[in-house]
Amino acid sequence: MGFDGLFFGRVDPQDYAERYRTKTMEMIWKGSANLGEESWLFTGVIPRTYTPPDSFCFDMLCQDEPIKDDPQLHDYNVPERVQAFIKAAHDQVYILFI
């Protein structure tokens, strides 16, 4: 098909709930019985759909703290923000697999 994988940002709420419950957010989509494995596509549902991890929304309407990467700033926060992002990534793995 020309793709290595495809991720859905939107999915039926009942399907999402079932996939979340059974930890099946990722799967192999078998696109065609005639084409066999050549048509198989790694597929997944983005766990939080379009929602960013908590405290990482940088939209103009969000109030999350920006990443301040100049060490000379009094509120330099890169180490804390990196740790928060790593935690968010671990939390997402928990949603998918554990």
Structure write-up:
By secondary structure, the protein is of the alpha+beta class. The chain is built from 2 helices and 3 strands. The chain has 2 domains: 1-49, no CATH class; 52-98, no CATH class. The protein has a 3-stranded mixed β-sheet, with no helix packed on it.
What brief labels describe this structure?
98 residues, alpha+beta, 3-stranded mixed beta sheet, 15% strand
Unreliable stretches = none
* Beta-strand percentage range: 15-25%
Distance between the termini: 31 Å
Strand order of the largest sheet: 1-3-2
Q: Mean pLDDT score, rounded?
A: 88
- What is the H-and-E element order? EHEEH
- What's the shape? elongated
Tell me about the largest β-sheet. 3 strands, mixed
Helix content: 25-40%
Structural class, from helix and strand content? alpha+beta
Domain count:
2
Rg is: 18 Å
* Number of beta-strand segments: 3
Number of helices: 2
Quick gist of this model?
GO terms for molecular function: alpha-mannosidase activity. With 98 residues, the protein is α+β, with helices and mostly antiparallel strands.
Write the layout of secondary structure elements.
Layout: E1 5-8, H1 13-22, E2 26-30, E3 40-45, H2 78-97
